[in-house]
Amino acid sequence: MITVAIGATKILTMNSKTTRQEAQAQAEKAYDQFILWSKRTVYVIIATLLLLASCNFGADGTGSGYNGEVYSPRNMGD
């Protein structure tokens, strides 16, 4: 039993077993919430990657290949 007293007045009395049970319940709730939000985050990341992959990650398909026509000289001294 934990008792906190100031002067002659008793302010707070807690049973350590009850406190442990409350702490255990709170820890389990926090863990469940952590797992829930972790799963949701992973699902959103996977969905985003699938969406990007379906759009070819924004690439237009031309790549960065060399196009000789762009650099070929025209109208040179005929």
Structure characterization notes:
With 78 residues, the chain is of the alpha+beta class. The chain has a domain at 26-56. The protein contains two helices and two strands. The chain has a two-stranded antiparallel ribbon. A hairpin with a 2-residue loop joins strand 1 and strand 2. The longest helix has 39 residues, at 16-54.
What is the element layout, followed by pairings?
Elements: E1 2-6, E2 9-14, H1 16-54, H2 68-71
Antiparallel strand pairs: 1-2
Primary descriptors:
alpha+beta; two-stranded antiparallel sheet; 14% strand
Question: How do the strands of the widest beta sheet line up side by side?
Answer: 1-2
Give the H and E element order: EEHH
> In terms of structural class, how would the helical and strand content be classed?
alpha+beta
Could you tell me the radius of gyration in angstroms? 34 Å
User: What is the mean pLDDT?
Assistant: 82
- Helix count, DSSP H or I runs of 4 or more residues: 2
Q: Main beta sheet: strand number and arrangement?
A: 2 strands, antiparallel
Roughly how much helix do the residues carry, as a percent range? 55-70%
Strand content: 5-15%
End-to-end separation in angstroms reads 105 Å
Given as residue ranges, the uncertain stretches (5+ residues, pLDDT < 50) are none
Total strands: the figure is: 2
Give the overall form.
rod-shaped
